[in-house]
Specification:
A: six-stranded mixed sheet, B: mainly beta, six-stranded mixed sheet, five-stranded antiparallel sheet
Chain lengths: 117, 111
Amino acid sequence: GAGVSQSPSNKVTEKGKDVELRCDPISGHTALYWYRQSLGQGLEFLIYFQGNSAPDKSGLPSDRFSAERTGGSVSTLTIQRTQQEDSAVYLCASSFPLAGDYTGELFFGEGSRLTVL
Amino acid sequence: GENVEQHPSTLSVQEGDSAVIKCTYSDSASNYFPWYKQELGKGPQLIIDIRSNVGEKKDQRIAVTLNKTAKHFSLHITETQPEDSAVYFCAASIYPGQLTFGSGTQLTVLP
């Protein structure tokens, strides 16, 4: 499809397990973002990739969270030793490069709902 | 860093009435203010945005106003329809793409 694709859409895991969430951005979008949305809350910025530059990791809540982006396209968000407070919807977004066609608009996927028991 | 506050958290209006959602931001360097609409089970979608060199922007039934001096901006929806029911998020940005979001407003349009 033409939109941002995220998988899995739902993930239930036990406390202490590791999880991986995948994001496939829109083709041609060099910027990729991860946000976390807890129940009834706004979107919390986690990490931002722009082209080949070093990612902005300033929003990651702890060292249990990490993300990588291979080949400038697909990204994986990894949460190690999950805790119950990690339960949330993890949203990925992508956008055009910061020049040319860039309008500021983020295109979001439908999210991965993580439940930690 | 930037802090964005959004009010109200819930808003119910009768179909055909207007709805107003307000946001304040803390960093005077912010220069981009988008509004996103999130329907149930979907990711947020941009509905309108405004940049700091503009005071007001309108797109059909939706308008956004910006007061840089007071550091607040508002979303106005006129002639509301049931399909306007959703969660609306304001956001502010200093750097392109790195948005700080408000906590959201659940808008319900009653038929």
